Amino acid sequence: MASLVGSEADLSDFLSALLRLEYDAIEAYSVAIDRFDDITLKIRFQRFRADHQRHTRDLAGVLSRRGTPAPEGPGARALLAEGKVVVGNWLGDRGILRAMLSNEEETNAAYDRGLARIDLGPELEFLLARHRDDERQHRSFIVEQLALTGNAPDEPASEEFLGARWG
Ligand SMILES: [Fe+2]
Ligand SMILES: [Fe+2]
Fold first, then answer.
1. To which CATH superfamily is domain 11-166 assigned?
2. Ligand that comes closest to the CA of residue 48
């Protein structure tokens, strides 16, 4: 099921949900980094995880300036994110990349929806746009890596494969 982070009525609720999604992403990245065989993928993903860690610090800062207690860890969705990576592991590095692409589609969509809000104000809009640039970079890298290796003959043809089991 697609995440609908970004469509919350209240700005603080949105920022809290976005922060939890970032924690989810960090957990998924940690699993992926642990399971990749390819060392260059491990290193690149450590950088991407660091981006998400910076995003959590930024978002927690915004929430605290708004006087809202910031979530300190992932929501219930952590299991879902990890589940996707676990399935990915079964398919090797390429499977992990596919699972992580699915996770990145969610963070990208959440920032897209968030940036369409009219209640952000210029400062927050600037911050979220920078985060979204990072998310786009993460997604592009994964798409490139998948394109480089091409479709394996025994691989399910579409992302629906993962969605059907874990979405
Ligand atoms: Fe992020
Ligand atoms: Fe990301």
1. Ferritin, core subunit, four-helix bundle (1.20.1260.10)
2. 2
